[in-house]
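Consider the following input, taken from an annotated entry for Alpha-farnesene synthase (Pyrus x bretschneideri).
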Amino acid sequence: EPEASYLINQRRSANYPNIWKNDFLDQSLISKYDGDEYRKLSEKLIEEVKIYISAETKDLVAKFELIDSVRELGLANHFEKEIKEALDSIAAIESDNLGTRDDLYGTALHFKILRQHGYKVSQDIFGRFMDEKGTLENHHFAHLKGMLELFEASNLGFEGEDILDEAKASLTLALRDSGHICYPDTNLSR
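Applying the prediction step yields:
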C-alpha cells in the first residue's frame, strides 16, 4: 500500500479552447466617440475650461468649485498650468484675507484646495467657527455642504493641528447622528 505522500491528485492542464469568440472584445474596442469630430470637440472644451480657470474673478468660491470639480473628475492633468497660475495669484492676494470669511463652506473649500496643491495654509482660519471650548459651533451643523467640505479639509491636517482634529471628531459625530453618514453594523465598523 503506497504512502499518502505519493498519492498526488493529478489535474490535467486547463488548456481548453475558449467558448467565447473574440466578437465581444472587438465590440468593446469600437467607440462612436473615436472620430475627429469628437477629438476636436474635446480639445475645444478643454480650451474653454482653461479660459474659465485662468479668468480673473472676484467669486473665489466659484473658481475653487471649478478647480475641485476638475480634480474630482480626474481631468486636472489637462489644466495643471492654469490651476497652478490661478492658485499662485489667489495665494498671493488672499493669504491675509483667508480667515476673515464668515462662510464655513467657502473657507473650508479654500483651505482644502490650497492644501491639496501644496500651499501653506494655517488651520487658524477655522478658529472663527469654533466656540470657546474649541468645538465647532452648533449653528454650523445646519449647513451640510459646509460641514462636508470642512470634513474633507480636516483630512488634510498635519499632526498636531488641534483645530482640524477637533473639527473632524465633532463633524464625524454630527454627521453620524444626523443620518447623513451610514455606518454598516458589522465587525469592521467597530
